[in-house]
Amino acid sequence: MAVKSFDSPVRNESDQEYLVEVKNLKKYFQTGSGVVKAVNNVSFGIKRGETLGVVGESGCGKSTMGRTVLRLYDATEGQVLFEGKDVHKLGQRDLKKMRRDMQMIFQDPYASLNPRMTVEDIIGEALDLHNLASGKKRRERIQDLLRLVGLKPEHINRFPHEFSGGQRQRIGIARALAVEPKFIVCDEPISALDVSIQAQVVNLLKDLQREMGLTYLFIAHDLAMVKHISDRVAVMYLGKMAELASSEELYERPLHPYTQALLSAIPIPDPEVERTRERIVLEGDVPSPMNPPSGCHFRTRCPHAMESCAKIEPVWQEVLPEHFVACHLYNQEIMGDKVLRP
Ligand SMILES: Nc1ncnc2c1ncn2[C@@H]1O[C@H](COP(=O)(O)OP(=O)(O)OP(=O)(O)O)[C@@H](O)[C@H]1O
Ligand SMILES: [Mg+2]
Fold it and tell me: Which of 157, 274, 86 is nearest to 78 (CA)?
């Protein structure tokens, strides 16, 4: 089959338009002990109205990527196109306008809300920044937003500590929605919440997405969790994308050995099937992003590592329709006839 790289996507009529396109994005941090390659050349698109889930172990660069996409961090290299415009090239005025379209919901609803501000101040601040409402209208708008996220409008004068974790995350969601964004980076928005509350917040995000036509980049630790939320899922390892496909495709036909290992760790509800589940246990720890392995970053833990994996970095390729992977097992030149056939 023809392999096409992400840089020149051939679009057919069924393809939706990309709202966000990330091209060869890098974010390096200069630290006292060296350069941390937190995001190391990633390329992907996010379609209008979809949820793209991003998973990977702690430290693989998920948050850094989310923040660099929103230009909360400057990119070291590469592009982020939002509706075709390069976010990292905008001047201050255009950037301010674009900030209305792109918002973030944070992992920790305790740390991300100022404890000295009331709910009215917190949500109002977002409205003021973009001159969206004043006086009586402003207060009404804030109360509408509270209703929208399932909170009581009469709680407008309360402080964050007067709410539970789940309610605080709802305040964070209301703050993001105040400016009527098109795109929201949700950075592990439910990880800090009780399991019993997690589904409620996920359902709220899903309902809001449907009602308001929102597009999400949804960051999570765990593949089992993102499956239900995401239309497509991307798997990251040590600053790079390992694989990206629709949720169904990724769970049914994982191609990258890392994705296969992550999936094999998820318990299956059916006890019969669960008994026969084969677990792929990865040896060793994730290497340091300051000094990643040569060639394929995953090769030091990969059960299928070959000689070429240490020498040549795998290319990010669309090996099946809408299914991207960076692995030599699916590289025609290296693997010859072992290449996957649909
Ligand atoms: N401001 C910073 N300065 C230096 N290094 C950083 C900075 N922020 C992140 N890093 C490093 O970059 C790498 C990626 O971190 P990041 O927080 O993006 O990972 P993550 O996938 O979000 O992890 P987690 O699942 O724990 O939230 C890590 O090695 C981290 O230590
Ligand atoms: Mg993070």
Answer: 86
What b/e string do you get for 159-186 counting C-beta neighbours within 10 Å, with b at 16 or more? bbeebebbbbbbbbbbbbbbbebbbbbb
Secondary structure of residue 255 in the 3-state scheme: coil
- Residue 165, in any domain of the structure: no
What is the spatial order of strands in the sheet that 323-325 belongs to? 4-5, 317-320, 323-325, 240-246, 232-237, 51-55, 215-220, 183-187, 102-105
CA nearest neighbour of 45 among 27, 25, 73, 72? 25
Range name among 2-11, 225-234, 285-294, 303-312 with the lowest pLDDT average:
2-11
pLDDT in tens, 263-273: 998 888 888 88
118 residue type, one letter: T
Whole-model pTM: value is 0.91
Q: 201 in ligand 1 pocket by Cβ < 6 Å?
A: no
What is residue 252's predicted lDDT score, i.e. its pLDDT? 93
311 pLDDT exceeds 50?
yes
Q: How far is the CA of 74 from the centre of ligand 1 (A)?
A: 15
Residue 29: domain span: 16-101+181-253
Q: Which atom of ligand 1 is nearest to the CA of 107?
A: 27
CATH number (domain holding residue 200): 3.40.50.300
What is the whole-number distance in angstroms between the Cα of residue 57 and the centre of ligand 1? 11
Residue 69, ligand 1, Cβ within 6 A: no
Nearest protein CA to atom 12 of ligand 1, as residue:
38
Average of pLDDT values for 50-76?
97
pLDDT on residue 36? 97
- The kind and range of the H/E element at 54 are strand 51-55
Average pLDDT over residues 150-175: 96
Residue 228 has pLDDT above 90, yes or no: no
Domain assignment present for residue 303? The answer is no
User: Residue 173 has what DSSP assignment?
Assistant: H
Nearest to 232 by CA among 326, 324, 138, 300: 324
Q: Distance, CA 59 to ligand 1 centroid (Å)?
A: 5
| Structural domains counted in the chain | 1
Mean pLDDT over residues 186-191, rounded?
92
